[in-house]
Amino acid sequence: MSTTDKASTEAPHDPAAAAAAEATAEAAAGAQLSTAPLEDAPGGPVGIGVLAWARWFWAQLTSMRVALILLFMLSLASIPGSLVPQNQVDLMKVAAWKKEHASWVGVAEKLQLFDVYSSVWFSAIYLLLFISLIGCILPRSWRFVGQLTGRPPVAPRRLDRMPAYTTWRTDSSPDEVLSTARGLLGRRRFRTEAGAGSGSGSVSAEKGYLREAGNLVFHVALIVMLIAFAWGQYFKSEGGKLVLRGKGFSNTLTQYDDFKAGGLFDSDDLPPFSFTLDKFDASFERTGPQKGTPRDFKAYVTFSNGAHGTPEKREIQVNKPLEVDGSKVYLLGHGYAPVISVTDSTGKVVYKDAVPMLPQDGNLTSTGAIKVTDGYKNKDGKTTQLGFAAMFVPTFAGAGAGTMFSQFPELDNPALALNAWHGSLGVDSGLPQNVYQLDTSKMEQYKDTDGKPLAKRMVPGESMELPGGQGTVKFEGIERWATFSVTHQPGSGLALAGAVAAIAGLAGSLFIQRRRIWVRAVRGEDGVTVVEMAGLGRSESARLPEELAALAGALHEQAPSAAPAPPAPPAADTEPESEPAEPAEEVEGERA
Questions:
Q1: 348-357: average pLDDT
Q2: Which of 50, 280, 383, 413 is most enclosed, with most CB atoms within 10 A?
Q3: How confident is the model at residue 429 (pLDDT cuts 50, 70, 90)?
Q4: Which residues, in sequence order, are CB contacts of 68 under 8 Å at separation 6+?
């Protein structure tokens, strides 16, 4: 028995072999992303009329080339969304960008660069890719259903023209060989069919239908991910809230410090829950090269789900959010809030609150602004507003030991530095303000007795006197705060399922090989059965000869090679022996 691996490009010389070559070409075409329903000239559709143009356009849109182009264009279209701040993400960053690039604002607004993912051109690319994938899947699905219900083709007449081929002779009858072959292939999960008509005396088998199923699963998974992405963008919501220790938060739109949502989001979809920050713990590395590195953050909250929910004690950590009705509450950061009290010239306390400071470095050097908007009257009895630019450090190096920067993030030696201003804070203008910054454009700075700007560095318990007996600012103590992000991202589970399915489908389309095996057994003129086996891969398969050899070996065990025929006996002599020839005479100079 011998197995031959022949070149698949060898041209057959009869109709049956030509059919096999067509099958190979069909398999190569099947590896493409889509099949064009109309074969047209490169320059445009053949024929005249709207229908011809529509068919040509549809063929181009559902082609692999255009699908790849659309995917590339979608990737390029996402770049401006990363480079230019987006309205749905941060309005303040958008305003700052417009201020810094005033000459480009007009062009950017016309191109919708501040709303990239909801722009007309991004949506157009997105929808075209969506339609292209659907147009690819539908015809392939119908074709795949036909393949599942179809039967393997009959064996070609010239099996020796196939890429992999083997043959041997056996004493078993053709029916025994074919029955054994059919059972063997069936146990190897081949779909088998006995030959009929011109293919009688043969068995056809085919395997690897899940390769096309993998292609379909991959394309369907891409559509699922596109749907999940759109669903998440239109119905998502995300808001941030800074909560002081001892204070609470209720999940309503007015409670958020900042909030952004998709175009189809409804505030009634916010799950009704609330929580109170009871305690916040943070630990840091004290020694070594990683000194000051955070080790653990943990927020202890009292949580209530719904208006009449039973309060429960919960813990929220950085990578362990609190999950409520499809929303997740993440712990993002933390910091310090000095407790400040302000009295007027009469000694009346007009302001007392914990003021959150914004960290500027890893050691929690923090800056902020204290704004006294109501209740304060100067020594002349006139109502005015006070503002204090503040810098807070949890661990001060000490006087003369350097600048006002923290040496460690824990409260080892806290200090607060203030500058005092009076006038109009601008909060009544209706324009949004940064709570951590002080707008001094309409304010005047207090001066000390030497005419220098009033400023003082304090530790907890110390006070700063305003000039002229106009009041006192006292550093009462320190509180902690933590920031939380409440996100609702519908479609994330669907997107994950789509991604997993896409990987599985892609793996199936790459590693599953579709191939056909034919077995023919016919009785020769000498009464010995001639067995032929051949294989054809519907896609490139380097292991096809090995698989055919293994199948042939298994079949050969059941139908072993016939013993070689004995040599024919020599023919009987009927004529008398001739006299031996006499040696030829040698002539000098030559041989007879």
A1: 93
A2: 280
A3: low
A4: 33
The DSSP line for 321-359 is PEEETTEEEEEEEEEEEEEEEEE-TTS-EEEEEE---EE
Residues forming beta bridges with residue 244, ordered by sequence position: 481
Residue with tokens 């024929």: 47
Alpha-helical (H) ranges within 105-209 are 105-110, 120-149, 174-187
**Residue 535 near residue 163 (C-beta atoms within 8 A):** yes
Residue 288 CB: number of other CB atoms within 10 A? 7
How far is the C-alpha of 24 from the C-alpha of 352, rounded, in Å? Answer: 84
The pair of structure tokens assigned to 176 is: 């025994």
Determine how β-strand 312-317 pairs with β-strand 455-458.
Answer: unpaired
Nearest to 340 by CA among 454, 444, 471, 448: 471
Is pLDDT of 260 > 80?
Answer: yes
pLDDT digits 0-9 by tens, 10-53? 334 444 444 444 444 444 443 333 334 444 445 555 556 788 88
| Predicted TM-score (pTM) above 0.85 | no
Question: Which distant-in-sequence residues (6+ apart) come within 8 Å of 355 by Cβ?
Answer: 337, 338, 339, 340, 368, 369, 370, 390
Burial of 357 (0-12, 13-18, 19+ CB in 10 A): buried
Structure tokens at 231: 């669903």
What per-residue confidence (pLDDT) applies to 476? 95
Instruction: Please report how the helices 64-83 and 120-149 are oriented relative to each other, as an axis angle in degrees rounded to 10.
Output: 150
